[in-house]
Amino acid sequence: MSSDVDNLQSISFTLMSIKPKYGIEQTGADTWPKVGGRLNDEEDFGKQFKKKLATEEVLIGKAKELPNDDKKIAYLFNEVKNTLKWNGVDRWYTNDGVVKAWTNKSGNSTEINLILYRLLKQAGVKAYPMVVSTRDHGKVNPFNPLLGQFNRAVVYIPVDSTKHYVLDATSKYNLYNEIPDNLLNSSGLYIDKEMERYDLIFLKNDAPVRQMVYTKAEVKPDGKMTGVTQISSFSYNKINRTSKYKGDGEEKFIEYLRNNDNNLKITALKCENADADSLPRLYKI
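Structure for Transglutaminase-like domain-containing protein, as requested:
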């Protein structure tokens, strides 16, 4: 199952309206546009968009010199995810604000991704903030417009009518052109403040995730086989294997490739394309 939260039987209550004895009835955020409007007005969300970051002109200037949006997105995404450290806290709102997070080079998930949103926007990329729910937090119910269903902000970039990017710079191994796997098969609410448009988008990835293995080997007269192998890991396979390689180290990663097969010996390993988001991760054995 995707999350135990999705299978938990429970009753949740939402305040829909307040009717004082003397005064006008006040309604809560009972539609997605109202939820989006509330986000716009929040000091810890919408009002963070206009806060200037120290020395941001340097990054924005370099991004503007790049020839197209994809290169701008890749550059700023990698700068933010490699510069800022996620403190492990997930909230749909900021705790200390984007300015302090930028200064300290650390922040919660929303602070990091709102910094990325500002830099992209200032560089001329058509980007929007989006609130989402991670897998362990549970799927978003599109029929229940409740802000508490979300626990993280990311950056939403529509590319064309059939393609969009969802950027999350909290993980060092995420790719700008792949929706993070812990956000898939749920919904995100994106905020278009200028047009006052707040739409719920279902996050999915229909493209197959590939992994190609090429082996050139020779069987010797004594029955032993020697040769070379090249593994090309794409998409989530690339993310997961890059995380494992960098997290565990080369020695443990070689053991992982051996898969407890004592008859297999790996004498050398070469890795390529770790930092190229548009290329597969290559392992040459």
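The domain at 4-203 is CATH 3.10.620.30 (C8orf32 fold).
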